[in-house]
Design goal:
By secondary structure, the protein is an alpha/beta fold. It is built from ten helices and eight strands. The chain has one domain: Aldolase class I (TIM Barrel, Alpha-Beta Barrel). Helix 7 runs antiparallel to helix 8. The structure holds pyridoxine-5'-phosphate (PXP). It catalyses: 3-amino-2-oxopropyl phosphate + 1-deoxy-D-xylulose 5-phosphate = pyridoxine 5'-phosphate + phosphate + 2 H2O + H(+).
């Protein structure tokens, strides 16, 4: 049975750690296999223009290693379009991308970029790829998504996550209402709403409770938590190996 609220695990930051040493450990493919084994619903990976985490070859290896649907996050460029068409992931989420940003800091300006996005959306859809736009939860952007004919939007929860971190209750309530209202409006118009960015154990539940939201994509926090959940057994195992050697 498909879960009514899917969890897509973004494995980019496993690759960030790998790339810090330039070798092949830790391999994001192994992370994807674990996600599949424990009942994650999808793998999300962002192939950035500068390849700072996921690399081209990772996409192929992830697709070969698991049957989970791959959600490729991509900038709206010719280069990324070609890569998406070559790999044919289950879904492609078009995200804004600036080289200098540390992460995807805001939603895509779908309203201002209609003419750039339209041919890309069209080609992806024509190749059977489920297209999503990573937008702010606002009516103008949702309207633009409707005009572009995408089946899915992913609402950027960054401002919501910041409000939670800052302990700003008024802003948190405003952000939650904005996401919840836009999720309802998207669903009413036949667009499947997803959400993601900055979600943690502490802030996920109010977003997960929004009934129309069908998928959450979560990455940085999960990879960070995995360090703490896993470090104990990793240190113990190293200790055992060292002890055995004496
Ligand atoms: N969804 C999209 C479209 C993203 O760009 C990102 C960040 O790469 C995420 C979800 C996951 O955000 P986080 O890593 O903060 O959980």
């Amino acid at each position: 049975m498909t879960n009514p609220l899917r969890l897509g695990v973004n494995i980019d930051h496993v690759a960030t750690i790998r790339n810090a040493r330039g070798g092949d450990h830790p391999d994001p493919v192994r992370a994807a296999e674990i996600v599949a084994r424990v009942g994650g619903d999808g793998i999300t990976a962002h192939l950035r223009e500068d390849r700072r985490h996921i690399r081209d070859d990772d996409l192929r290896r992830i697709q070969e290693a698991t049957d989970l649907p791959l959600n490729l996050e991509m900038a709206a460029t010719e280069e990324m379009l070609e890569i998406a068409l070559a790999h044919k992931p289950h879904a492609a989420c078009i995200v804004p991308e600036k080289r200098e940003e540390r992460t995807t800091e805001g939603g895509l300006d779908a309203a201002g970029q209609h003419n750039t996005l339209a041919p890309i959306v069209w080609k992806l859809k024509d190749n059977g790829i489920r297209v999503s736009l990573f937008i702010e939860a606002d009516e103008r952007q949702l309207d633009a998504a409707l005009k572009l004919g995408v089946p899915v939007v992913e609402f950027h929860t960054g401002e919501y996550a910041h409000a939670h971190l800052d302990g700003d209750g008024d802003k948190l309530a405003r952000e939650l209402k904005r996401i919840s209202d836009m999720a309802a409006l998207a669903a009413k118009n036949g667009i499947e709403p997803h959400a993601g960015h900055g979600l943690t154990y502490e802030n996920v539940q109010p977003i997960a409770a929004i009934p129309q939201i069908a998928e959450l994509n979560i990455g940085h926090y999960l990879v960070g938590e995995a360090v703490f959940v896993g470090l104990e057994s990793a240190v113990r195992h190293m200790r055992e190996l060292m002890d055995e050697a004496r």
